[in-house]
Structure formats: C-alpha cells, structure tokens
Design brief:
It is built from seven helices and no strands. The termini are far apart.
C-alpha cells in the first residue's frame, strides 16, 4: 500500500509524467476493496474503489485500464459531489489517454476544467495530449513526405530509363 501512496504523491508533487502502477499495487487495492465489502462503511467502500480505479487506469496493461474506465463510468452516474465528479472524470481522461483515445480524453479534461479551471493535473494532461497529437501529426507528415518523395523518385528513375 505504501507503493501506491508514493506513486500518487510523486504525481501530485510535480512533473508532467503520469505515474505507472504495478500489478502488486493493483492486487493490494483489489484486496482492500474486497475487505471493505465485508462490513465497511459506504464511504470506506467508495474510497477503496476510487483507489482501485486510480491504480487500474495507471496500469501498463490495457485490460486493467479498460477495467478502470468501466468502473469509473459505472460509478460516475451516482456521483453527486462536484469534487468527486471532477476526480472521476479526470481518471477517465487518464484512462482514455492511456488507450490513445486523445479526443475523448481532451473532452473529459474540458469538463474537469469547467469545474476547476486552474487544476494543475488536468492542465498538465491536456498539454501532454496536445503535445502528443502535435508529435503524431509531425511524424505522419514526415512519413507522407517520405512516401511522396519515394514515389516521385521512382517515376523519375522510370522516365530516365526510357530515354
């Protein structure tokens, strides 16, 4: 459990990199959820589920990320607190970012920023998405330009051989 809190702490203390979560941390959170199901208060159950959701969307395993997204989407409907709603929407944005669904992630971050316009984590993730989309666009342009150059070179070589 200490690893979990260290991972969360490193994220909130700064830096623009999203933390990764190991299988061990996820297993610890799953154990905590199962223990909370046996007689814990609704608040304790909710907190343990939030920790598990956090761990899942920060996993390197796509199936874990998808499970975290599903848990968050299912619980978002019953969320009344604006703070909890913001947190869940943000974690959904992280999950979609991990799945490379940048447009959906950006849309969710816009919702977070409507609730809390100066929220640093949301702003940082939004910037990371913009940088990633820009980088992917530049790479795409580079690949396209290379392909066009190769095709043009092939035509030029074919014309030169004819003459």
């Amino acid at each position: 459990m200490n690893q979990f809190f260290e991972s969360v702490n490193s994220f909130f203390s700064g830096g623009d990199q999203l933390p990764w979560c190991s299988r061990d941390i996820i297993a610890g959170c799953e154990k905590e959820v199962s223990e909370a199901a046996n007689g814990a208060s609704d608040e304790a159950k909710g907190e343990s589920i939030m920790r598990l959701s956090w761990a899942l969307v920060h996993s390197r395993q796509p199936e874990d990320v998808n499970r975290g997204i599903a848990m968050l989407e299912a619980s978002l409907v019953s969320t009344n607190s604006p703070l909890q709603k913001r947190e869940k929407i943000y974690l959904l944005a992280v999950g979609y970012y991990r799945n490379s669904d940048f447009s959906r992630s950006r849309m969710l971050l816009e919702q977070c920023l409507e609730i809390a316009p100066d929220w640093r984590q949301a702003l940082t993730l939004k910037k990371a998405i913009e940088d990633r989309v820009t980088k992917d666009g530049v790479i795409g342009i580079g690949i396209s330009a290379t392909a066009v150059g190769l095709i043009a070179g092939g035509f030029a070589a074919a014309l030169m051989r004819r003459h």
